[in-house]
Structures are given as structure tokens and as C-alpha cells.
Amino acid sequence: MRIIFFGSSGFSVPSLLQVKDSIAAVVTRKARPRGRGYRIDDNEVKSAAMGLDLPLIEIDSFKDDSALSIADHRPDLYVVVSFGLIVPKWALEIPSIGPVNIHPSLLPAYRGPSPMQWALLNGDSTTGVTFIRMNEKMDEGDIIRQDEVAIEKDDDFMTLSHRLSDKAAQMLQYVMDDIGRQGMMKGQVQDHTAATYTPIITKEMGRIDWRQSAARVDCQVKAFVAWPTAFTYLDGKRLNIYSSCVDESVEAKAPVGTITGITKTGLEVSTGKGLLIIRELQLENRKRMNAYDFSRGYRDLQDKSLN
What we know:
Layout: E1 3-7, H1 13-18, E2 23-29, H2 44-51, E3 56-59, E4 77-81, H3 89-92, E5 98-103, H4 115-121, E6 126-133, E7 143-150, H5 157-182, H6 214-223, E8 230-234, E9 237-247, E10 259-262, E11 267-270, E12 275-283, E13 289-290, H7 291-296
Parallel strand pairs: 1-2, 1-4, 2-3, 4-5
Antiparallel strand pairs: 5-6, 6-7, 8-9, 9-12, 10-11, 11-12, 12-13
Helix pairs in contact: 4-6
């Protein structure tokens, strides 16, 4: 079976490695300049493909001339994982068996580009990985396999993404075996009336509103830890928060956003309901560090206001 693999992020790599011996070509998005120096770094899929000496096709869109070369590889199957572009109908019709897409959610919930972040932001206890027969509509294909995965209490985007990425790679082997035995499965039509959609995440979504409950802010910290990172301001400087926990047993009496206590666990901050305990942070122009260590080098932190 000749596979063309589509992927552009680290989430894709375990699945790429799972089917590396059947790969005819890897398609990934071209890198874009980023940072003040407009540095261009290879994405994780490109690096992995080059390390495996696999044929590589880099595109900005399916209008690129290089996208037309996909057909030259005579693929039997597409495997599409965290690719970042909608695959058009003309390209979906190329593989002889069909295209399969892997989505880190329990479809039809959380269709769109940021399902893991929204599952964490909403405080869900369960998510999953879904394989669909891909069509030209976003995440609407028939489901050929779906497995649930528990969201652990301390999961953030990084840990959850890692687990779902590994889970997707394990499931891919089962799906490949099934296709090898019986061809492409028909699949189960999704209940489109139950579908929910996730928007693209913006920088401003990371800003903390301390009027919310501590539990809600904690979800925000976990969901956005990779980007844009939950943030607030301390003495006019941006304060990024990378790790937190919640104490709802205490009724906060100070104005919301006030640092009411400092312990070895971290900085206790009053919210609309309960205390948020900041465990790891980074103040603008300083290094990322444990919150208690930070408190030892920052004067008069007690009773300061975060806003």
C-alpha cells in the first residue's frame, strides 16, 4: 500500500513514524518566517521526513504547482493528521483506496482547528481520537474508528496532545490492518445536528479575567499553555502563567486579582470563586520559574493586584 502522508505539526509525527515503511511521499506546509529575526525553522514533520529520507512536498496551498505532483506518486491511501489546510475535492479523488483523516476529538464534537484546547477550556473529563473517511467538508466525513481518552486532572495542552498523538498512532496501525483485510470501511455517518465547532485561538483569549472562578481560570491556563499562554499584568508588566491549581474551599474576601497569600505551593490569588494558586510563571523580561522562587526575589508581592 502506497501512502501519502499529510501533516505539519509535532502531533503528526508519531503517526508518520507508524506508517513510515509505506510512505510514498510526505506533504507538509511551507515554513513561514517568524520572530523578530524572521527566522525560518523546519516544522517537525519536515524534520522527521528528512531524517527518514522520505520524498517531501512543501506547499502553501493546493494551488501551488508542487501540489500537482502528488498524483505522480500513485497513492493508494492518504493519511491526514494535523495538516492545517483543507484538502480540495480534486486531490481527495487521487488515492485509489481513499483519504483518511485523524482528528483529536470525539466527533462530531469540537470540529475545527483547536479541539484539544476547547476540551480543556471547558473542563471536559473525556476526549478522544476519531478516524474519518475524509471529504471536502471540514471534519464531516463518516467515522471509521473512534476511541475515548480520559482527560486527567493535571493534564494541560502539552500532556494531552502528547497522549492523543501517541493514541492516534496506535489506532492508525489497527485501521491500516483493517483496510488491508477488507478495504476501506464504509463508516458511520456523523450526527451533524450534534456538531460543535472550535474557532481559531487568538492572543487575547489568553488574558485572564479574575472575576471568573478559579476553576475556570485554571482551565484557561491548561488550555493555552503552549500558545498564547494565560496572562495577566503585575505592576504594568505582562505575567505569563504556565501552571496553576485551585482551592475552592476558601472564600476569597479580597478584591478579585489580589495576591492574598504566598506559600511554597505558589501565589494565592482571589477570583470570583475560590483561590487560584499560581505554581509556575514568567514575568516580562525575566526567565520562567517556580512561583515561590519568584516571590523570594520580588518585593512586597503580598496584596498586590493582578489585572
